[in-house]
Amino acid sequence: CMAKMRILLVFAACLSSGKGLGLRTHLNRQRTVLVSPRFAPQQPSSLSTSSSTSTSSSTSLSTSLSTSLSTSLSLRRGAHSSSSRCLRGVRAHGIFAEGTSKGAVMSDAKALKSWLDNKDDREPPVCLSSLRGRNDGRRVIVIINPTSGSRSGMDVLRQMVLPILQYGGIDNITVMETSSRFSVPKQITEINLDGLDDILVVGGDGTLCGVFLGLGEHEREDALTFPVGLVPCGSHNHMFKVMSGFPSVHSKVRELDVLEALLRFVKGDTTKVSVPLVQANNNKKPTPFLCGLSFALLAAAFKTSEGLRWTGFRKRRYYAAILYQISRMKDYRYVVRYLPVTSSEEPPREQPKTFSDEWVTETGPYKWFGFSPNSFGVPRQDAINENWGYLMIIENTRSPLTIIQTILKPSLKDWENKKYARLEKVKALMIQPLGSDKDWNMDGEKMPDFEKLYVTFARKKATFIG
């Protein structure tokens, strides 16, 4: 492991110095699968598939086929002799940790797992089959990113998602395959939401955040309220853990957790949550985000880690990039203004030009600071804080070890009991860079250089389902 880490650090150094390895290629490609079966207990549903490949010219190719559900679930990989063997293949990819999740696990999820292991010989459990009537006519689009995390999203789709949706009575399914997480926002803006009821994301944090980014840019005025569900297949699955009440970002996502989420999606369980918005420079329309914003050290680290995605490493590439940037021990300066959660003033919707005495102003220097709207271990309706977020600051330290301990193993105690770390609860945030360091990161993505950022909340605007 140490040898691999040293190799990654060398790659990180090359990329940070501008000597990119040039091994990544982005393809402008989209594949759409239309699943329109009618459930029949003795006659498995059919799958209708159409594929399209688009470039800068409007060249396209479409095909259509019909097949049984058992054949559709083995699309691209060939038929499997049993569902249990399929699921063992999914587990081998390392998406789910073995064992049961902490706390009580719903017996319905266990029943689903048992059924999927022996689906050819069993009827679906009552917890699933009893939902067929309520889902008649329900229209769902599945957004899948095959490159998320360990690249096993297609296996999860075939072996878990489609059987549960279809046997639960959802017979109008469109599957849209993204060419990369960078293409998701544009694809979402082109979807006719009036012809759909729900969106289900099979992917990681980047794909989910891309969906919300696209909804924020959609021509439909209330697009941000459109119901969105999530099946986690990413490197960190941060938002799934937040919305599922996991105690920390380091909690393990297990198979039963995902089955519970899928069953809640089929049931149609929804939760209204707030959405943080960031307004960059002088843009009139703010942009929604979910995981958080990052500046200074971690912004540079995320930029480096993206250049290491081709290695196939998941979390290790993030850690390698962070360690490299920490080793530089660089200071960053920004003008940071924030409105504490204890203030009586309500934050304006757009960037303020003047600031009252209730606003706090500081200029660093900082090693790192970021903003997160999320709370772990709370009910899902409170997972994204309604009108405030955490401003996290690391400063006044020359020890790389202290930074590593705080960033890689975060807890409230790390921020509350350290002289070099601060945690502020803020209702609004304004940031301006001082000097040439204008890198910033939103939901794990490098964003264009900025002159000014303003962060507020749209209260109870988004709808999570599942």
From TrEMBL:
The keyword Signal applies. Residues 45-64 have a biased composition (Low complexity). SUPFAM superfamilies: NAD kinase/diacylglycerol kinase-like (SSF111331). SMART domains: DAGKc. Residues 34-64 are annotated as: Disordered. GO terms for cellular component: cytoplasm; membrane. PANTHER family: ACYLGLYCEROL KINASE, MITOCHONDRIAL, SPHINGOSINE KINASE. This is DAGKc domain-containing protein. It comes from Lotharella globosa.
